[in-house]
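Provenance and format

Records in this collection were gathered into a single text stream. Each protein contributes a sequence line and a token line. The two records reproduced below are adjacent in the stream.
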Amino acid sequence: MATKRAVGGLANKVIAYAFTVGVILALVVGLIGAWIPTWLPVLTSLLILAGIVVGFFNISPTETRDYVLFVTALVIVTSLGQSTLSQLQYVGPVLESVLKSIMVFVLPSVVIVGIKAVLNLAKD
């Protein structure tokens, strides 16, 4: 019984760190994506996969409403910020790339969390 609890606790910790790892990966992809264009599709696929993992496993039903609200605000601000920041002379393209990477990570998770919320509403 103790080993079952320990395994469950370890799984919860891994899942809890998935969002943080996804954000860090998005920042790294955004920063280095311009210098290694051949790896960009692979790194983008990893971001999408991390977003799917976060959407399925990291957001509990009690957190759904807040998560969808905050991520929707993040997506709006990020999409508006991309066009504004891209106009900066030296750091603009890098900041735009970082924001795009964050969106690539967050969008799959919010779609999955939203679908799960709709299915939970349909069950009730």
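Adjacent record:
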Amino acid sequence: MEMKEIYSCENYKVLNVTLSVGEKMPLHEATSNAFLICKKGKGRITFSDKVVDISLGDTLLIKANDQHKMEILQDFCSNIILDSDAKINFLKPQPKTVDMSVY
């Protein structure tokens, strides 16, 4: 995965993101709304309540703090527009808990 800032100004910034087929972008969230524009390829974005396939020419608005992950189905390139001070936070998987009250 390559993620590079290609433009920024006072109000917003634009990231260029490229991934190869078979790669996965782990669970993450952005601190602002993110507007994704697919420039190449195909990917599958999994949210807690839905799965969205995205391909060349598609756009998608991802709300701030909406956790999601992505699987790349064809070599993929997109631009992502975020607030100028936004951050993308990659989240560690939460450990599974065991209900010990049943033992």
